[in-house]
């Protein structure tokens, strides 16, 4: 089983600043990595798949990078609507798994 | 955008059973979120039901299935435990095994 570890657990950022979220896999997942945004009371939303491909409707300020075991989600300039919990998920092999999440909060 | 609608959640005693439903077609699955916890993938099934997979935490207790004549996905949950208490999401799988669409979730509470 491939374990996904996200860091930091909480990231405090001011609006307009850059946020960098990390996701590490215990074994290589190649480029089979997705990122989701989850706000309280809402369904999670797919942001990025194949490590760096933005899903339909994902703003350009969100970018994903990495391959193998190290991945990064970058939000170039945080907007008020971006404060949420972000999860990575690998889909390289069974079982699929999510990271524990990074909460992005207002500084 | 694909609309997914789950139903069937509720309160059940430990050891009991519950069946969740979701109006959804194609390759789909289930993900849950326990109170105060993160997301946990549970199970996935292809549109033709020829590829089915489970997380170890539910293997042998939960059964995923689908009825294509009704465009409905199911999750039969047996031998429920207190730790199965969670919001259960129905998900639509994308071009890889990631989740491009999510339902709003149905709440399952396992308690005596």
Structural write-up:
The complex is a heterodimer of chains A (107) and B (112). Chain A is mainly β. Chain A is 0% helix and 50% strand. Chain A is built from no helices and 11 strands. Chain A is globular. With 112 residues, chain B is an all-beta fold. In chain B, strands 2, 4, 5, 6, 9, 10 and 11 form a 7-stranded mixed β-sheet that branches. The radius of gyration of chain B is 13 Å and the shape is globular. The model of chain B has no long low-confidence stretch (mean pLDDT 96). Classes of the chains: A mainly beta (107), B mainly beta (112). The interface between A and B is medium-sized, with 24 and 23 residues.
State the gist of this model.
Chain A is mainly β. Chain A contains no helices and eleven strands.
N/C terminus separation of chain A: 36 Å
Query: Between the first and last Cα atoms of chain B, what is the distance in angstroms?
Result: 39 Å
**What is the CA-atom radius of gyration of chain A, in angstroms?**
13 Å
Number of strands of chain A: 11
In what range is the share of β-strand residues of chain A? over 45%
Characterize the overall form of chain A. globular
Helix content of chain B: under 10%
SSE pattern of chain A, N- to C-terminal: EEEEEEEEEEE
Structural class designation of chain B: mainly beta
Silhouette of chain B? globular
Mean pLDDT of chain A: 97
What is the number of strand segments of chain B?
Answer: 11
Alpha-beta content class of chain A = mainly beta
Strand share of the residues of chain B? Answer: over 45%
């Amino acid at each position: 089983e491939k374990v996904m570890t996200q860091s930091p657990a909480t990231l405090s950022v001011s609006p307009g600043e850059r946020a960098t979220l990390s996701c590490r896999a215990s074994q290589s997942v190649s480029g089979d990595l997705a990122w989701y945004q989850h706000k309280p009371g809402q369904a999670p939303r797919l942001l990025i798949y194949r490590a760096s491909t933005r899903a339909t409707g994902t703003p350009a300020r969100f970018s994903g990078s990495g391959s193998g075991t190290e991945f990064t989600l970058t939000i170039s300039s945080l907007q008020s609507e971006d404060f949420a919990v972000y999860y990575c998920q690998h889909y390289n092999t069974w079982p699929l798994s999510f990271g524990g999440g990074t909460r992005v909060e207002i500084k | 955008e694909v609309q997914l609608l789950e139903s069937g959640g509720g309160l059940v005693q430990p050891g009991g059973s519950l069946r969740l439903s979701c109006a959804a077609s194609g390759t789909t699955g289930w993900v849950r979120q326990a109170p105060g916890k993160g997301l946990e993938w549970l199970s996935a099934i292809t549109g033709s039901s020829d590829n089915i997979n489970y997380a170890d935490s539910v293997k042998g207790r939960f059964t995923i299935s689908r009825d294509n004549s009704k465009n409905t996905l199911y999750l039969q949950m047996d031998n429920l435990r207190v730790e199965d208490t969670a919001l259960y999401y129905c998900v639509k799988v994308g071009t890889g095994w990631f989740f491009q669409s999510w339902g709003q979730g149905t709440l399952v509470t396992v308690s005596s």
